[in-house]
Structures are given as structure tokens and as C-alpha cells.
Amino acid sequence: MPTEAILACTRIYLGVDPTVSISMIPIKKGASGRTIVRVFREGHKPFIGVHWKPERPDSENFVPVARFLQKCKINVPEIYYENRNKRVALVEDLGEVDLLSMKDCPFAEREPYYRNALVHIDKLFYARVPKDLELMPPFDEAMYRWEQEYFIEHLVEDFLGMDGRALKNSPELHALSARLGSSAKHLVHRDFQSQNILCHNGESWLIDFQGLRRGRQEYDLASLIYDPYMNHSAEEREQLLDMWEQITEDRPSESMLRDCATQRLMQALGAYGNLAENKGDEWYAQHIPTAAKILSEVVAGTPLQEQLAPYLKQAIKSC
To answer: CATH number of 100-316: 1.10.3720.10, 3.90.1200.10, 3.30.420.10, 3.40.50.150?
Structure first.
């Protein structure tokens, strides 16, 4: 059992025998398929226990990627202990406040955390990957195409019950994956959104970074700006872009940001559909209409607008 493995590793890490009382509280967050708990022992600071399954190869990257990011001066939780055989890691507890939990706060209160998070993502641009660090396969045309098919299978067909054959054969979607797959590849977080940015001691801290890989930097930027959980206003999106320009002295081209936002939102909708329809996690279903509405706005005036319209219209009405 995952919790038993975490408990056994906790006793080793703390150097205590089975008579010492240790308690654990589950943390139900995200969709990585991992077991995550907050561990308590009297007289010791709480920490986080993580157990992963062998079915998810990206989870094996969590510890080495964390250590790499720390060397790059990027804020991530400290790794206290790991046991690869038991697939357990014990890590720093940075609290429960993430950007999503601050959704109802004025943007001015969230702004410093967004700015700090963007600073850390920019550091990825300059990071040099050691030869012995194995990352997930890079974004290429095939990977982008897989995300599109994930959207078609799980959102269009499974969740909406619609025929997705026309989208599978769409020249415009094939062209999108080809454009993105042929472009520059830098390190990307892969799931850079409000749930994965913790707010601690006045700074932003990244979590769920085990999917780190090479790709378009704008993919991460689009993930944050067009985050369905936050549903930013047009003004807030512009403020985030202004922050990015101030940090990097660069601004993404409208066409590239739109392409990355289109791709990312399809991936998110596919994930929401899969989790809601096939995994029984209804929490994600509530975000489908918002994500579909944002995607409709993003593709407006492009060849994809007409093709996606019937599916997105149905998705907007789904809840």
C-alpha cells in the first residue's frame, strides 16, 4: 500500500521505531496519479510524503528534476529523502496556499506571485541540462498530435459523445502540430498553471514538475495566461504579458502564443474530459465550459474556429 510505503520511509528518515506515533493526512490535489500525504510527528516540522506508481514514467523523474531545478536557483521543494525501490520521496512542506486558492483576491495581491513564477520559468530558458539527467520525451510534431487526439478522444467522443472523425482528419490541426513541432525547443514545465504554483514566504514555488521536457517556452506562458481554473480577464492577460516582457525584454508573437494556447487548451480539455468521464472525478467537469469558452476566444478568426465551433458550443453547455 502507498501509505504503508511512505510510513516505512518516514520511520527510516526520522530514525524512529514502530512505537512512535506518526500521522498522515491525504492531500487530494492534481491528477498525477500519485499518493500525496502531509506527515506529522510530534516535535518535528510536517513534511510531504509522495508515492508513485510504476505506470507513470514521468513520476520517476520527480526527484532528479527537483535537484536539477534547485541547482538552477529555481524555487522547488527540497528533497529530504528518497527510496527508489519503494517509489517514495519525502519533501519540504510549503503549505497549502497556491495561486488557485487566491483566485478571489484582487489581481494586485496575486501580481507578485505571478511575477516571481514567471522569473523562475524564464530561468528554464537558460538552464543547461546535465548529460545524465533523463527528461520526458521532448515536444515534437508527434507529441503535439498526441495531445490533439487526446482532446478528440476524451473530450469530444467520451465526454460529449460526439463524432470526432472530422477533427482527426483536420488539415488545420495537422498544420498546427507541424508548426509547433518544427520550432525551437527549450525547457518547459509542461503543466504551468495555478494549482502548481505555491505561494510561500512571499515567493512562488513550482511543484508537479516531473513532466519537464524540451518544447516551446510559449507553451508554459500560454498555460498560465489562459489557465481555465483562473479564467483571467482580457486585462489580466495583458498584465501578465506585460510582466513577461519586463522580465525577459521580449514579447511572444501573437501567432505563436495563439498556437500554443490553442494546443494547451485542447490538452487541458482532453484531461478534464478523461478525468470526469473515465476516472469519475467530477471536480474537473466544472472547468470544461470555461476552458471551451476560452478556446473559442483564442481560435476566433482562424481556420479552426468553424471546425471546433460545434464541439466547443456543446462543451460550454455541458455543465
So the answer is: 3.90.1200.10
